[in-house]
Amino acid sequence: MKAGFVNIFGKPNAGKSTLLNALLGEKLAIISSKVQTTRHRIKGILTTKEYQVIISDTPGIIEPKYKLHEKMMTAVKEALEDADVAILLHDLTDKDVSESHEIFAALKLKVPVLVVCNKTDKVGKERTEQALAFFKAQSYYTDAIAISAIKSLHTDELLKKVTALLPEGQPFFADDDITDLPVRFFVAEMIREKIYELYEEEIPYHTTVLVQEFKEKSTLVKIQADIIVQRDTQKGIILGEKGQGIKMLGIAARAEIEKFLGQKIFLELFVKVKPKWRDNDIHLKEYGYH
């Protein structure tokens, strides 16, 4: 039996969350075309008779601008510390490999490293081959592969390469566990994902979601969540004219959560203003950013 932690690192928007979902065959991590969607470290667990892989999606590596960013980078640091295998994800739509290379080299990894060039569906063969050749020449390189996470192209081969590098050991989690995070966390994330989809510009970045109530009744699950923003003007944008904005958000989030839970839900959303919550340690802790 092989078992270990495989942690994904890379720039914002390289496709880390899409890759986690593709490897698991389950949608655990929310995805958006906007950068910095992932704020927490999300672990997905894949167990077979031969191995147990605990795959972590981590926030995109950035220079922190406020305390929320610092907490996000702490999640990256923790993932660096317990990795048995590291996946370094390079976005092939970047014309240059230097930015990814700088990040990868700065991580100073002591474990086997799989460089994964993602988004082969968006670029030509020549760029893919050039990127692979570049990374194969680097000191941190153990193995490399080119994939398309969104189309699940070559993700099976990637998994074979990952398991080959895993240490021997006993499973860390039960066979049927798919994550170590509670259902409430994923409910909040799904609401947040819809905020990224439905609202423009800075709104998603100034917003977080806190599930206040999660009650399983006989026929449905009752969920009450607060959407936290920084300013009254943002509250107005989330609510929309005559409440149309939050109504659309509720409909979209409910559909996603029902699919995830496999049962009907009653969803109630409230918008609360907490000035500068992204720079307030007490608020950040309350909202799950430890």
Written description of the protein model:
The chain has 290 residues and is an alpha/beta fold. It has nine helices and nine strands. The protein has helices spanning 16-24, 67-82, 98-106, 125-136, 155-165, 183-198, 232-239, 244-261, 281-286, and strands spanning 2-10, 42-47, 51-57, 85-91, 113-118, 143-146, 208-216, 221-229, 265-273. A six-stranded mixed sheet has the order 2-3-1-4-5-6, with helices on both faces. Strands 7-8-9 form a three-stranded mixed sheet. Helix 6 (183-198) crosses helix 8. The model has no long low-confidence stretch (mean pLDDT 96).
What is the topology?
Blueprint (H helix, E strand, L loop, with lengths): L1 E9 L5 H9 L17 E6 L3 E7 L9 H16 L2 E7 L6 H9 L6 E6 L6 H12 L6 E4 L8 H11 L17 H16 L9 E9 L4 E9 L2 H8 L4 H18 L3 E9 L7 H6 L4
Parallel strand pairs: 1-3, 1-4, 4-5, 5-6, 8-9
Antiparallel strand pairs: 2-3, 7-8
Helix pairs in contact: 6-8
Compact summary:
The protein is α/β, with parallel strands linked by helices and 290 residues long.
Helical proportion? 25-40%
End-to-end separation: 33 Å
* β-sheet strand percentage: 15-25%
Overall pLDDT metric = 96
What is the overall shape? globular
Structural class: alpha/beta
Descriptive terms for the model:
about 290 residues; three-stranded mixed sheet; six-stranded mixed sheet; alpha/beta; 9 helices; 9 strands; about 35% helix
